[in-house]
Specification:
By secondary structure, the protein is mainly beta. Helices cover 8% and strands 34% of the residues. The strands form eleven sheets. The chain has a six-stranded antiparallel sheet, with no helix packed on it. The protein has a five-stranded antiparallel sheet with strand order 3-8-9-10-11, with no helix packed on it. A hairpin with a 2-residue loop joins strand 40 and strand 41.
């Protein structure tokens, strides 16, 4: 029995065993070859492109996710209604003072999404960025959902009007402050007080007002961070800071000045290292077609960081672009500009009037949206333009019916990030209907590629002479928990002195809620968000009321009165709201 067992142990494997073994080895070799081909280095494989290893590993490349491609944008008119020819459009170009038939920019402008406009912490232009989508920065921490009843205040002044009749006072439309947390190294080279330079985490409020001054304030306390700059021209619109963090400010006069014998309005580039004006333009520009070459600037400028180019529309009907040739050495504390390649574009349509007595006068008072290489803006004559900033060709136009002052807002929507514009218009009176009568004011969603109207919602509004009804403030675009909504302030609806804030569904154009006010709003609403993404709305009106509303329901949470007309639009940094009134006060209000 034992010999039999030993023989069985010595028995060699049969043929079937060797066949199975060979098949297994072949499978291993084939699998190795396939895996080797997958990880073979090549320029297009992010896994083997030489990037650092993942933390905790000793060898092998780090996988890098493929970046989301930036959506292309090639706007073009697809119907007669949006064709520039249908508006009888004529345009003109001037490059460095010489009129030309055509022009192509050597370094193309290409703006990306609004969230990428700047790395500075704060609100650095009207509605924050090139999409004009938000005047809020940070996170709101709301436990009580109330306004602090003891805000800080700063007195401003007034400036006599050029005509000698009355004065420009306080902060006007659009009048939004700028709020910025400068990097420490930048703070040290500016003409700030030592107390401001040495304060850790200083956030600075920069506010150009109608008394001709630019004020610099500590967001926490309202104390001055440096001496005001007295430019001597009334500033109605919001200024803008350079998105690159270079301490430059761009701001334009809203009227001529009566001081110093009287001077024509213009735009200013202010050096915030020295506190001096380095450059002006638009002064009684003879390239402008508007009567008297009036060069008011209520728009807020944009700067293309990659090409060092300033973009600034004027109420004289001229859009200005210029290469700044910025030279900035922070370590040496030096900053200078030397603009060149100054391009001026003007326009006229078949219903444009060069005189100010017509309701269709030339002039751009809103702030332009810029997406990729195109600017979208409206004018005093009820025209919306999509202008290619690299060729100065108008790609499409849309009829906005009336003197249009609210700034368009751009939104990228859907899986393909399709661009849409939300906007509305004023009821200026005098041509669509007599003053004090009623006119229909639409709120539009417009396809930014074609200029076609996607939907519109209409409200009946009134007006009085020189104080328009309709939508003067810029709508707020909902984000986070409010992503399906837009918020629109409507003046003189349903009655002459009334107003309303409406929340409209972006997809269905259904009115979700309506908040009535006994006094009309020219101020723009601001949407703010807590850490969970829950949204709230700040809205002001001409009686000096500031409202805090639940963004989803429109329920009133709190009210504070600031004692005077709030035409200006607030800016909000974390829990602090800053806004000026026509009664010569700037307020810093904390949300609790």
């Amino acid at each position: 029995m034992s010999q039999l067992k030993r023989r069985r142990r010595r028995r060699r494997p049969g043929l079937r065993f060797y066949v199975l073994l060979l098949l297994l080895l072949a499978a291993v070799v084939l699998g190795f070859l396939l895996f080797r081909d997958q990880i073979a280095p090549n320029d297009d494989n992010p896994i083997t492109s030489g990037r650092p290893n993942q933390p905790g590993t000793t060898e092998g490349p780090t996988p890098v996710p493929t970046p989301t491609p930036v959506p292309a944008f090639s706007p073009t008119s697809i119907s007669e209604d949006t064709s520039p020819q249908a508006f009888g459009l004529t345009t003109g170009l001037s490059v460095d003072g010489e009129q030309v038939d055509s022009y192509t920019r050597p370094d193309p402008i290409d703006f990306l999404e609004g969230v990428n406009y700047t790395k500075l912490e704060g609100i650095i232009g009207f509605r924050g960025n090139n999409f004009r989508s938000s005047a809020f920065y940070g996170v709101a921490k709301l436990s009580e959902k109330k306004f602090d009843t003891e805000p800080w205040t700063v007195k401003t002044g007034s400036l006599p009007k050029r005509t000698g009749e009355g004065s420009w006072t306080g902060s006007g439309w659009t009048g939004q402050p700028l709020i910025v947390k400068w990097p420490d190294a930048t703070k040290q080279i500016m003409n700030m007080y030592d107390s401001a330079k040495n304060k850790e985490g200083l956030v600075e409020v920069i506010y150009a007002t109608m008394d001709g001054h630019i004020y610099f304030l500590d967001l926490d306390t309202g104390e001055k961070t440096r001496d005001p700059i007295n430019v001597g021209f009334p500033f109605k619109g919001a200024g803008a800071l350079d998105p690159r963090g270079i301490p430059l400010m761009y701001v334009g006069a809203g009227d001529h000045t009566s001081t110093g014998g009287g001077q024509y309005a213009r735009s200013f580039i202010v050096n915030l290292v020295t506190g001096k004006v380095d450059y002006t333009f638009g002064n009684s520009d003879d390239f402008a077609l508007r009567e008297g070459h009036i060069s008011f600037f209520d728009s807020s400028a944009l700067v293309d960081a990659e090409t060092d180019t300033l973009i600034y529309p004027g109420e004289n009907g001229v859009l200005y672009t210029m290469k700044l040739n910025t030279k900035y050495d922070e370590s040496a504390g030096t900053l200078s500009i030397g603009p060149s390649e100054v391009v001026r574009w003007h326009y006229k349509t078949e219903r444009s009037s060069t005189g100010s007595s017509s309701p269709y006068w030339l002039g751009i008072e809103d702030s332009a949206v810029v997406w990729r290489g195109c600017a979208i803006f409206t004018d005093n004559g009820g025209n919306m333009f999509c202008l290619d900033l690299n060729t100065y060709e108008v790609k499409w136009m849309q009829d906005t019916l009336d003197d249009t002052n609210c700034t368009p807002v751009l939104s990228l929507e859907g899986a393909d990030h399709h661009p849409y514009i939300y906007t509305s218009t004023s009821f200026h009176g005098g041509w669509r209907a007599p003053v004090s009568s009623t006119a229909t004011i639409p709120i539009w969603k417009i396809d930014a590629v074609t200029g076609e109207i996607v939907w519109k919602v209409e409200y009946d509004c009134r007006t009085v002479a020189d104080v328009s009804g309709g939508v003067q403030g810029t709508l707020a675009l909902g984000e986070q928990g409010l992503a399906d909504l837009i918020f629109v302030p409507i003046a003189r609806h349903p009655n002459t002195n009334d107003g309303v804030l409406v929340a409209i569904d972006k997809n269905t154009h259904e009115e979700r809620w309506s908040f009535p006010m006994e006094n009309y709003p020219w101020s723009s609403p601001v949407a703010i968000y807590d850490a969970s993404g829950k949204g709230y709305i700040i809205q002001c009106n001409q009686a000096g009321d500031m409202f805090l509303l639940d963004g989803l329901t429109g329920v009133l949470l709190d009210t504070i009165n600031l004692g005077g007309n709030i035409e200006a639009s607030p800016a909000v940094y974390n829990n602090t709201i800053v806004v000026g009134t026509r009664l010569n006060e700037i307020y810093g209000i904390t949300l609790e």
